[in-house]
Amino acid sequence: MNEKLFKVITNSGIGNLVMGIITIVGGITMGVLLVVSGARLLKSKSNIVI
After folding, report:
1. pTM for the full model?
2. Nearest-angstrom CA–CA distance, 1 and 11
3. Where are the alpha helices (DSSP H) in 1-50?
4. Whole-angstrom Cα distance, residue 9 to residue 50?
């Protein structure tokens, strides 16, 4: 009984850890993309005519 419970808890912990890592990597990637996009907009600011 205890071995089954330990296995379930271990698998749950591993799944949570993997999801956390994926979330962190995705957040960093999106942040970098936003900064690059903003830099491109600032660079081409003089070309925009309203």
Report:
1. 0.72
2. 16
3. 2-43
4. 59
